[in-house]
Each structure stands twice: as structure tokens, then as C-alpha cells.
Amino acid sequence: MKAQIRMGESIAVMVVFFFLIVIAYSFYVKIQQSSLAVDIGKAQELRAIQLAQLVYYMPEVQCSSGTQLVKESCFDTLKLEKFKGILAGDGRLFYFRLFGYSNISIHQVYPPSSWITPDYDYDNDGTKENILLYSRNAPQDDPIRFKSTKVAQMPVALYDPIQKKYAYAYLVVEYVY
Amino acid sequence: MSINRKSQMEIMGLAIIIILLMLALVFVVRFTLIPNQNAPKKEFSQAQIAANTLNAMLQTNVEECNEATIERLFVDCAQRTSIIDCGTGGSFVNACDFLFGNPPGINSFLKNSIFLNTLDLWEIPYTLTFNDAQEVASDSGDEKCSAEHVGTVYSSRDLKEAKIGLGGGTVLIVQMELCS
Fold it and tell me: For a Cys-Cys bond, which of A25, A150, B52, B95 suits B76, CB 3.0-4.6 Å?
């Protein structure tokens, strides 16, 4: 009888002990999950910046004179217009490998009235002037991926080679992951 | 013999309790005492934004000032030559007043036309200083973005400079500070 009581005690202690271990483990897994989500977020933020830099330093859009790059932080608006056409046409597949599912646009800040050569894509309210360079929507049927977006912005000058004038703008990269 | 076994069991129990306490301590140190590091994005992109803001801004032509570039306006402001008229409606406005406002900060072109829809919109505290004298600063944040407030109000600060040569060894310095 005494031995049975001892056995019962031991079993109860073991049950409590394992119960505590299970609680601790689930707590640990939850913390690991949240820190993993943070790490993934940081990695995707870096990817968005990487993408913004890629566009920022593309010779396809940078201001140039002859064969030499002459201006930093500058996009040639005629090159932008041409590049936009390439992205929507023959270069669609090639640039998809670089840009993936993302939206790349340029927002003119100053002067507010558009004088630069390419056509603008107006927002719904008709006030903001954007050049939508690239847009590829992510598939909606994927239950896990492509549910979040990271945004990176970078100021840039827009050069109109016809009027030989510069406007102040910024590049926006919205990366979907 | 039974006394020995009982004391052994008690020591085992104590050891388990100590191990559990140590595990708990490791968790506390990991999640509370080690400070959160800045996101790599902020550290990296802030320096880029500061440099690119300066580069892009200095090239921009200003309609109100007969299409002069902002760099040219800085030169005119520093030399006090008042060659460029930035006034509208017949009144003369010199480059300094136009760029930084008169009184300073009021109707500043840099503030209203350049930074309001970029750095202010992105809520990045900034200070643009010209020749250690005139400046434009953000409204966001409790304190001005400067070296003295790093470590107290802000965790990091990036400083970029643009130098404009005037000839004869004179150089104008435009500084852009971004904080986070």
C-alpha cells in the first residue's frame, strides 16, 4: 500500500514535470516563430532596398552624355519613356527575373506641374503625378506567399533633355513577398 | 542506506531546480537585456537617402527663379550678390529668403516644395545646414536632428555633405543630417 502511494507520488511528479516541459517548449517555439518572422521581414526590407538600388543605378535610365555617365542621382526622362515601353513589351520576361512581383514608380515632387516629356499616370484624385515604370501583380491564389509588401524610396532628379531642365522626384519600389 | 538515497534524491531535485532557473535566466537575458538592434534597412538606406537628396536637390531647376538650379541659388545666397530674383508678382525676393524663408522657416522653398513631400512625408527627422549658418529642419521628432541628440533622442544619425566650389579656394558646404 505504502509502495503504491509512493508510486502514485512519483507518477504525479513526473506528470507535472512533463507538463512544465511541454509549456516551456511551446513558449520557446512561439518566440522562435516570431523572431523568424522578424528576420524574414528584415531580409525582405533589404531585398526592397536592393531592388531600389538596382533601378537607381541602371544605365537604362541614368542620365548620360555620350558614353559617359555625367550625373549621379538622375534619371533621363526620354530613357524612362523608352524603358517603360521595353518593360511592357519585349523585355517583360527578362526584367521579371530582376524585379519579380513589384511596382516601380517615380513621383514628381517639384515642380508640381508636369513639364517633362513622358506621359504621367495620374492617381484617382488626379493630383499626384507618377510615372509607373513597372508593375507586376503577385498571384492571388497562393495562400502563404505574396501577402506582404515592403516599400523603399529614394530621391532622384528627373532630367528632360529636350528642355534641358531638372525636376525633383523620388523613386518608389514596392516589393511584394 | 535509505538516508543516503533520500539525500541523493534531494540533491537531484535541487539540481533540476537550478537548471530550470538558469534556463529562465537565459531567456530573460536574451529577450530583455540585449537591446534591439536597428533594422539594417534604416542604417543602410538612411545614408543613401541623405546623399541622394543632396545630389538630386542641387540639380533641380526652380521655375520661380528663372529656372536657376538650387546649387546656383546657394551660390547667390552665399555671395550676397542678389543676382537672381525669385519673386513673383513684381516684388524682388533674393535667393536666401527664397530658400530658407523670411523670417527663417516661414515660406521656405526648401521646406515647402522639396522636403514636405519627401522626408517629412516619410517621417525622417532631418536638418539641412548651409555654411554653418542657415538651416531647414523637420517638424517631426521632439528635438532637432543633430549630433548632440544622438544617444538620447535619436539612436543614429547620418551626415552627408555637398561642396560647391566658388573659385579662389572658397567652398560652400551644404550638410544633410538624417536621424532615426
Answer: B95
The beta-carbon neighbor of A155 closest among B53, B61, B67 is: B53
Residue A115 — pLDDT band, cuts 50, 70, 90? low
Question: How many whole angstroms separate alpha carbon B118 and alpha carbon B36?
Answer: 27
Placement of cell 508640381 in the chain: A112
Signed CA dihedral, A107, A111, A115, A116: sign only:
negative
Nearest residue, CB atoms, A165 vs list B40, B49, B67: B67
Write the secondary structure of chain A as one string of H (helix), E (strand) and C (coil): CHHHHHHHHHHHHHHHHHHHHHHHHHHHHHHHHHHHHHHHHHHHHHHHHHHHHHHHCCCCCECEECCEECCCCEEEHHHHHHHHHHHHCCCHHHHHHHHCCEEEEEEEEECCCCCCCCCCEECCCCCCEEEEEEECCCCCCCCCCCCCEEEEEEEEEEEECCCCEEEEEEEEEEEEC
Residues of B in contact with A159 (CB under 8 A): 59
- Report yes or no: B148 and B125 within 8 Å, Cβ to Cβ: no
B44 and A167 in contact by Cβ < 8 A?
no
Type of residue found at B104: P
For residue A79, what are the contacts with CB-CB under 8 A and spacing of at least 6?
A: A60, A61, A62
ipTM rounded to 2 decimals = 0.77
Q: Is A130 on the interface with B (CB under 8 A)?
A: no
Would the pTM count as exceeding 0.90? no
Strand order in the sheet with B157-167: B134-137, B126-130, B170-179, B157-167
What tens digit of pLDDT does each residue of B75-132 get? 999 988 888 999 877 788 999 999 998 887 778 899 999 999 999 999 899 999 998 7
